[in-house]
């Protein structure tokens, strides 16, 4: 881990933030949320150690190099850059899966998406998954989801998996979005109408929720889930005009990201105004790989790829840190439960691990490998898909990629050093056959476990 704060860099960021002045420029007409059903309860042993407020902010299709702080020379992201300058910055933050919904399921459950039969882009996840919202309710948290959902309706509707207040969209959305409220999902059921930039409008809804809890000193968990920068790229003009010299498609793409960035700025500003920023964990991630070469590679659709990740928690992270230790979506759930001190009595298998030690600056290396399975465009009933599909296994500095035989191409195994060879140009498999075999063995064991979950093994007795 290395410190990265630089005075000159911060000065540039502050100048950019002032110059853009892009906060609070969307208006929202929110109606009172509809009455909601009680979320599912679970048995838990909650021995709260700390009760920080927790906010997950999830971008849609944003790549790891779509921010100024990560090296993009074009995009203007002063607020995310400012966040990075005081946060834990994950240099190697891995998406749990290739596309939108599976990554989101992993964020909420700590599990690889195929355990919930999420083999491809869209949901639903399986009934029986336990979300971080459900778990946090056992420790007295109030919970809310705002924005893109994508994990199903009916049994896996956000109101049924732990969220008290829900203002949501089935998928990605654009400016002027009309969100659904509570358990409604029909256009004529009193939607929340928004105006202005879509990410700013989403954050505005979250701020309304947060303000009420802050006044009561009530711990909360909020997921803010943007529809940007998922295509189609239709930016608000306040943000596309930041890029007058770019061609239109670039203005549109970067305009969406700058809108999202301003929304994050509004959220951080409000946490400071409410004087709750020190005791609030703000975890910003994207759901899958980027969609453009300039995003750090066109990696949406691939498994075992990096995406963006920042964690801000001033009470614990008192100086900026940048880490190369691999972390993934699947670590978010176990980390939050570890911080708050929650153990579920019937916790389904978790694939991630708590990174509390990393937050404390005490983790030298990761103690648990990270696995990825493609699934792909297959029927959910495909036999042994978890054992036979393409897979990636990250253990320490090594990434093993197993690509199954296709048509005329034989099965291929590659091994890369993810620290020394960022773009994975050099295949070390022939040089290190013992390492490869050891990783293949571990991967095979893990795939067997995922296959058992896929078959429904995990969903027992957790629901009262
Ligand atoms: Ca996405």
Entry summary:
With 464 residues, the chain is of the alpha/beta class. The chain folds into two domains: 2-368, Alkaline Phosphatase, subunit A; 371-462, Arylsulfatase, C-terminal domain.
User: In order across it, which strands form the biggest sheet?
Assistant: 1-9-8-7-6-10-3-11-13-4-14
Distance between the termini: 43 Å
Which second-level CATH architecture of the largest domain applies? 3-Layer(aba) Sandwich
Structural class: alpha/beta
Find the count of extended strands (DSSP E, 2+ residues): 20
Mean pLDDT: 89
- Identify low-pLDDT runs: 1-39
**CATH class annotation of the largest domain:** Alpha Beta
Strand content: 15-25%
User: How much helical structure, as a percent, in the residues?
Assistant: 25-40%
Remind me, CATH topology of the largest domain? Answer: Alkaline Phosphatase, subunit A
Can you list the ligands bound to this structure? calcium ion
Q: How many domain modules?
A: 2
Assigned CATH superfamily of the largest domain: Alkaline Phosphatase, subunit A
Q: What value does the Rg take, in angstroms?
A: 21 Å
Shape: globular
The number of helices is 11
Question: Strand count, sense and closure of the main sheet?
Answer: 11 strands, mixed
Report on the architecture of this protein.
It contains 11 helices and 20 strands. By secondary structure, the protein is of the alpha/beta class. It has 2 domains: 2-368, Alkaline Phosphatase, subunit A (3-Layer(aba) Sandwich), CATH 3.40.720; 371-462, 2-Layer Sandwich (Arylsulfatase, C-terminal domain), CATH 3.30.1120. Helix 1 runs antiparallel to helix 2, helix 2 crosses helix 7 and helix 5 packs parallel to helix 7 (248-273). It is globular, with a radius of gyration of 21 Å. Mean pLDDT is 89; it is low at 1-39. The structure holds calcium ion. Residues 60-61, 100, 230, 287-288 line the site of calcium ion.
């Amino acid at each position: 881990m290395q410190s990265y704060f630089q005075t000159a860099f911060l000065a540039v960021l502050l100048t950019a933030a002032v110059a853009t002045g892009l906060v609070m420029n969307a208006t929202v007409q929110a109606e009172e949320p509809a009455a909601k059903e009680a979320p599912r309860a679970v048995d838990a042993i909650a021995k709260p150690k700390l009760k920080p407020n927790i906010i997950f902010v999830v971008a849609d299709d944003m790549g790891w190099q779509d921010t100024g702080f990560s090296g993009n020379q074009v995009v203007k992201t002063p607020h995310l850059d400012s966040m990075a300058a005081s946060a834990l910055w994950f240099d190697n933050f891995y998406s749990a899966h290739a596309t939108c919904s599976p990554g989101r399921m992993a964020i909420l459950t700590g599990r690889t998406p195929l355990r919930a039969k999420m083999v491809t882009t869209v949901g639903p996840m399986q009934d029986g998954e336990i979300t971080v919202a459900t778990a946090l309710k056992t420790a007295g948290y109030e919970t809310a989801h705002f924005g893109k959902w994508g994990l199903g309706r009916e049994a896996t509707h956000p109101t049924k998996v732990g969220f008290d207040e829900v203002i949501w969209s089935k998928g990605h959305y654009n400016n002027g979005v009309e969100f659904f409220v509570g358990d409604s999902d029909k256009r004529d059921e009193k939607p929340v109408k928004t105006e202005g930039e879509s990410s700013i409008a989403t954050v505005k809804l979250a701020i309304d929720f947060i303000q009420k809890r802050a006044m009561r000193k009530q711990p909360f968990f909020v997921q803010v889930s943007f529809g940007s920068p998922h295509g189609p790229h239709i930016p608000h003009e306040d943000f596309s005009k930041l890029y007058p010299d770019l061609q239109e498609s670039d203005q549109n793409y970067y305009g969406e990201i700058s809108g999202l960035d301003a929304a994050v700025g509004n959220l951080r500003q409000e946490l400071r105004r409410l004087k709750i920023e020190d005791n609030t964990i703000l975890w910003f991630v994207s759901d899958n790989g980027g969609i453009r070469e300039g995003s750090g590679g066109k990696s949406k659709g691939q498994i075992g790829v990096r995406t963006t990740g920042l964690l801000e928690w001033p009470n614990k992270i008192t100086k900026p840190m940048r880490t190369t230790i691999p972390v993934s979506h699947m670590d978010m759930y176990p980390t939050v439960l570890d911080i708050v001190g929650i153990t579920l009595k019937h916790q389904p298998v978790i694939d991630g691990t708590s990174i509390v030690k990393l937050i404390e600056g005490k983790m030298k290396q990761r103690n648990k490998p990270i696995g990825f399975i493609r699934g792909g465009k297959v029927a959910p009933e495909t036999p042994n898909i978890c054992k036979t599909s393409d897979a990636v296994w990250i253990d320490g500095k090594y990434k093993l990629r197993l690509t199954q035989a296709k048509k005329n191409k034989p099965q291929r195994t590659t091994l890369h050093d993810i620290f020394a060879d960022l773009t994975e140009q050099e295949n070390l498999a022939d040089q290190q056959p013992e390492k490869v075999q050891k990783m293949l063995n571990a991967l095979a064991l893990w795939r067997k476990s995922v296959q058992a979950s896929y078959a429904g093994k995990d969903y027992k007795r957790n629901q009262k």
